[in-house]
Design a protein that fits this description.
This protein has two domains: 203 residues, 2-enoyl-CoA Hydratase, Chain A, domain 1, CATH 3.90.226; 49 residues, Lyase 2-enoyl-coa Hydratase, Chain  A, domain 2. Helix content is 48%, strand content 15%. It is built from eleven helices and ten strands. Strand 1 and strand 2 form a beta hairpin. It is globular. It starts with a helix and ends in a 10-residue tail after the last helix.
């Protein structure tokens, strides 16, 4: 079997379920991981399944050494609005499914995260990038705009003015600028990105991840709402957190042993 045929038969999305409760998802269309409709559908289905699995405590999403994902699969583009809407819907479904996982979702970015690749990374909760990473929304160079959440998630991360500049120019930013802008949270050496992200996720996975999911829901849901509405969301999530097994464990452990001694189950 040729290398090309072997790649064609390989799953486009690899899933590794670790004993520590971390699920590692690897985009597998090397070397640049173009986001085809089929790959987006696989991300959507997998993310929804992980969201419903209480044994999953955290998720790490990564790509190849060369690219987290270098954008949409332009070979699927057709010059009409109907095709564009279908493509946008595929990106929306995948990004929304990742964002809806009620546990921490970490993007481990090596190489390029461009266009739809950056949009996918921005749908994650926390972004760890290689010191060699390059990020950007270059759609304008094709005469189009981001359609997978880029105009909205990018503005929420870096501000409206800077988002406009990045989208209008289509330029790529290096990891250090991305960190300064708030587009990523950490930079590590390229050969350590995945192991570092998994270790970070593993530390979270032994914590009160049910409460983390409720905090995530309050933060994401309240971010662009009026403060009073956002505080209502927080109050509801706060009350809900007291119904978790972890809350009972944590409060009892605090009263008996002091802070930081509870052994949580994530439920």
């Amino acid at each position: 079997m040729t290398d090309e045929a072997s790649r064609a038969d390989a799953p486009m999305l690899l899933e590794e379920r670790r004993a520590d409760g971390v699920a590692l998802l690897t985009l597998n269309r090397p070397p640049m991981n173009p986001l085809s409709s089929a790959l987006l559908a696989a991300i959507t289905e997998t993310a929804r399944r992980l969201a419903a699995d209480d044994d999953v405590k955290a998720v790490v999403v990564t790509g190849s050494d060369k690219a987290f994902a270098a954008g949409a699969d332009v070979k699927e583009f057709e010059p009409n609005a109907r095709s564009a809407r279908r493509i946008a819907n595929g990106f929306r479904d995948a990004a929304d499914a990742l964002g809806a996982i009620p546990r921490p979702v970490v993007a481990a970015i090596r190489g390029y995260a461009l266009g739809g690749g950056l949009e996918l990374a921005m749908a994650c909760d926390y972004r760890i990038a290689a010191d060699t990473a390059r990020l950007g929304q270059p759609e304008i160079l094709l005469g189009i705009i981001p359609g997978g959440g880029g105009t909205q998630r990018l503005a929420r991360l870096v501000g409206a003015g800077r988002a406009k500049e990045l989208i209008w120019s289509g330029r790529q930013v290096r990891a250090d600028e991305a960190l300064a802008l708030g587009l990523i949270e950490e930079i590590v050496p390229a050969d350590e990105v995945v192991s570092y992200a998994v270790a970070f996720a593993t530390k979270l996975a032994v914590g009160a991840v049910a409460a983390m999911g409720l905090a995530k829901r309050a933060i994401d849901g309240g971010y662009d709402r009026p403060l009073a509405q956002a505080l209502d969301l927080e109050a509801a999530a706060f009350a809900e957190s007291f119904d978790t097994t972890d809350a009972a464990t944590g409060i009892a452990s605090f009263n008996e042993h002091g802070p930081g001694k509870a052994a949580f189950t994530g439920r």
